[in-house]
Automatic annotation (TrEMBL):
Its EC number is 3.1.3.2. This is Purple acid phosphatase. InterPro entries: Calcineurin-like_PHP, Metallo-depent_PP-like, MPP_PAP, PAPs-like, PAPs_C, PAPs_N, Purple_acid_Pase-like_N. It holds the Pfam family Metallophos_C. Keywords: Glycoprotein, Hydrolase, Iron, Metal-binding, Signal, Zinc. CDD domains: MPP_PAPs. It catalyses: a phosphate monoester + H2O = an alcohol + phosphate.
Length: 434
């Protein structure tokens, strides 16, 4: 008798049993091992790019050689660089650690939706990136609390498989946690992705690294991850905004003053006053500590910022708010002032990038009425904004090493539901208050 049918049947039964079981959450994975290698001291390392105002990109890299020039040569065909830009550089000391030379060079104006080839400091290798389109559709990859473990690698591999234009990171990058060389290994780990698409980041608690009486906070973060704060009228790298293809994105700081008398709050008001929903119908906001969180981890930590800033963001009709901090995934209905509200924002906690601290498993029960989907697994999200009215959001869980699309939803914009128009007066009033 041919044993094949029996084996097939047995296989099908066992597969069904496995599928029916509850998903078993994987444990944290070990920190990645980065073998030490001697690199030529002028070799560009840790290359990443970020938006630097309309049609411009900032290229950032590190060299051990302190005399290496901060120039970027670039063009639209490989090996032929029709343009060159000169930038600036910085470096910092942290106790016994001395950073390499950190170069920041702004290039442009650049065409939309175009592949550029570039070289840093006149040195091979050549890198390439694609600029985002001028209009919808546009796709954002979103993952926070990355760190540098086996799970981080798995998340980055999955993001690499997707077609996206911009990476959004709501805080907690390297988990260097005072060990400065880990900022260097993190830079190396993300280079393949971050040199090819703009990485727009905001800070989390792991970026602080302050030591009372010795070190102010955010020294490494601000030196290495310079964002377009000057370009967006902000006086601090810890909060800024940018516009891309019909989207106005605001990156806020959970760990810098955010009360009504703060500089950040004043800047936010000024920034919101500049938003034109005809030009940028979608308004996205990112910060680290979630305001709507039904996980037991980090309960209430965002309350102060929420009390100060939610009325402002609600009057401005923010469409989607992304946060990290809690190592799990959660998506809410449209909410405002603690309850569901058709004109509120969708809040998404996506602090599940894969860091060494592992997942946050415990939830408050029963779930609040506003919580739609919550799960403690590592993964990443993709926001595909199709047009001025529709966006498709998916969350991809790292099922072992396969990305599995586990949550998905169409989100319609507040412009299309009439909320933006309904709130015109409320917004004007709040923005003109002294
Ligand atoms: C926007 O995209 C959605 C989803 O594909 C579609 O149903 C809708 O008709 C589009 N709207 C416009 C104005 O093109």
């Amino acid at each position: 008798m041919d044993p094949k049918p029996i084996i097939t049947v047995l296989f099908l039964i066992s597969a069904t049993v496995i599928a029916a079981q509850e998903y078993v959450r994987p444990p944290p994975r070990k920190a990645l091992h980065f073998p030490w290698s001697r690199k030529p001291s002028s070799l560009p390392q840790q290359v990443h790019i970020s938006f630097a105002g309309d049609k411009h990109m900032r290229v950032t890299w590190v060299t051990n050689d302190k005399s290496a020039p901060s120039v970027v040569e670039y063009g639209t065909s490989s090996g032929k660089y029709s343009s060159v830009a000169q930038g600036e550089s910085t470096s910092y000391k942290y106790i016994l650690y001395s950073s390499g030379k950190i170069h920041h060079t702004v290039i442009g104006p650049l065409e939309h939706d175009t592949v550029y080839f570039y070289q840093c400091g006149g040195q091979a290798p050549e890198f390439q990136f694609k600029t985002p389109p001028a209009q919808f559709p546009i796709t954002f990859a979103v993952a926070g609390d990355l760190g540098q473990t086996g799970w981080t690698k798995s998340t980055l591999d999955h993001i690499d498989q997707c077609k996206y234009d911009v990476h959004l990171l709501p805080g907690d990058l390297s988990y260097a946690d005072y060990i400065q060389s880990r900022w260097d290994t993190f830079g190396e780990l993300v280079q393949p992705l971050a040199s090819a698409r703009p990485w727009m980041v905001t800070q989390g608690n792991h970026e602080k690294e302050n030591i009372p009486f010795l070190k102010d906070g955010f020294q490494s973060y601000n030196s290495r991850w310079k964002m377009p704060y000057e370009e967006s009228g902000s006086s601090s790298n810890l909060y800024y905004s940018f516009e891309v293809a019909g989207v106005h994105a605001i990156m806020l700081g959970s760990y810098t003053d955010n009360d009504e008398y703060s500089d950040q709050y004043r800047w936010l008001k000024a920034d919101l006053a500049k938003v034109d929903r005809q030009k940028t119908p979608w308004l996205l906001v990112l910060f680290h500590v979630p305001w709507y969180n039904s996980n037991k981890a980090h309960q209430g930590e965002g309350d102060g910022m929420m009390a100060a800033m939610e009325p402002l963001l609600s009057a401005a009709s923010a469409d989607i708010v992304f946060a990290g901090h809690v190592h799990a995934y959660e998506r809410t209905k449209r909410v405002n002032n603690g309850k569901s509200d058709r004109c509120g924002a969708v809040h998404i906690t996506i602090g599940d990038g894969g860091n060494k601290e592992g997942l946050a498993h415990k939830y408050k029960n029963p779930p609040p009425e506003w919580s739609v989907f919550r799960e403690a697994s590592f993964g990443h999200g993709e926001l595909n904004i199709v047009n001025s009215t529709h966006a498709f959001w998916t969350w991809h869980r790292n099922d072992d090493d396969e990305p599995i699309r586990s949550d998905q939803v169409w989100i319609t914009s507040l412009v299309s539901s009439g909320c933006v128009a309904e709130k015109t007066h409320e917004l004007r009033k709040i923005l003109t208050e002294p």
